[in-house]
Specification:
- The strands form 2 sheets. Strands 3-4-2-5 form a 4-stranded antiparallel β-sheet. It has a 3-stranded antiparallel β-sheet with strand order 1-7-6, with helices on one face.
- Helix 2 runs antiparallel to helix 3.
- It is an alpha+beta fold.
- The chain has 2 domains: 93 residues, Translation Initiation Factor IF3; 104 residues, Protein of unknown function (DUF541), domain 2 (Alpha-Beta Plaits).
- It has 4 helices and 7 strands.
- The chain starts with a helix and ends with a strand.
Length: 254
């Protein structure tokens, strides 16, 4: 017995020397070791605002060469069929008159067609339909701008009883936009140069350019001469438009 104990102890000693003994303990007897995941400082994105930032505005005055007319026919009748028939007849006459004055098919577009029941309500009773209103509306682009007054007179004579407004514009605004854009950049460069000089630094290269927007708007004054103004023609004045472009630019400094 003693010999076996000695042998067992010797075997354990050999295993311990070789590093082969594994001590397995109950989970309750050994405290859990939790990995510490200390949060690393996150890299904060920083926005580079160095340099000189300015805005520039460019303006170009334009003489309109097209006009868009909003013309309508409105009819009322006791039945829907009658109101629709009257509106169709009058709008057909209006459209044919517009085309006879040189306006192309592509420049005539229906923009609205509405049918509205007309009701009457007596005290103590439900509303009763007494008729119908039909409204048909066209958008007409006039490219011979001197003919605007003549066309307005002609469509009213042909049966149009609503003229909602006239909008003036240019058929190709791209060249004017380019002029205004170049003027806006020049304006921004001049401002940046003034700021750099006042601050005692040298203006560097352009870092960024952003276009803020392009906005055409009428100049609120009449032109010196009305369009096609005669005793028999509605006087229409085109005036001028102003196309504005804004840019945001940032320059480096040295």
């Amino acid at each position: 017995m003693f010999t076996r104990i000695v042998l067992a102890l010797a075997a354990l000693a050999l295993l311990a020397t070789a590093g082969l003994i594994v001590y397995v303990a109950s989970p309750r007897s050994v405290p859990a070791i939790e990995a510490s995941t200390a949060a690393l400082p996150s890299a904060q994105a920083t926005t580079d605002t160095s340099g000189i930032s300015v805005s520039g505005t460019g303006r170009v005055r334009i003489k309109p060469n097209i006009a868009t007319l909003s013309i309508g026919v409105e009819t009322r009748a006791t039945t829907l069929a009658e109101a629709t028939s009257q509106a169709n007849t009058r709008m057909t006459a209006v459209t044919e008159k517009i085309k006879s004055l040189g306006v192309a098919d592509k420049d005539i577009q229906t923009t609205a067609f509405n049918i509205t029941p007309l009701t009457e309500q007596k005290q103590g009773s439900a509303p009763v339909i007494t008729g119908y209103r039909v409204n048909n509306q066209l958008s007409v682009t006039v490219r011979k701008i001197d003919d605007v007054g003549k066309i307005l007179d002609a469509v009213v004579a042909a049966g149009a009883n609503n003229v909602y407004g006239i909008t003036f514009g240019v058929d190709d605004p791209a060249p004017y936009q380019q002029q205004a854009r170049a003027a806006a950049i020049k304006d921004a460069q001049d401002k940046a140069g003034q700021l750099a000089k006042a601050a005692g630094v040298t203006l560097g290269k352009v870092i960024s350019i952003n276009e803020g927007g392009v906005s055409p708007s009428p100049i609120l004054r009449a032109a010196s001469a009305p369009v096609a103004m005669t005793m028999a023609t509605t006087p229409v004045e085109t005036g001028e438009m102003e196309l504005t472009v804004t840019v945001e630019m940032r320059f480096g400094v040295q």
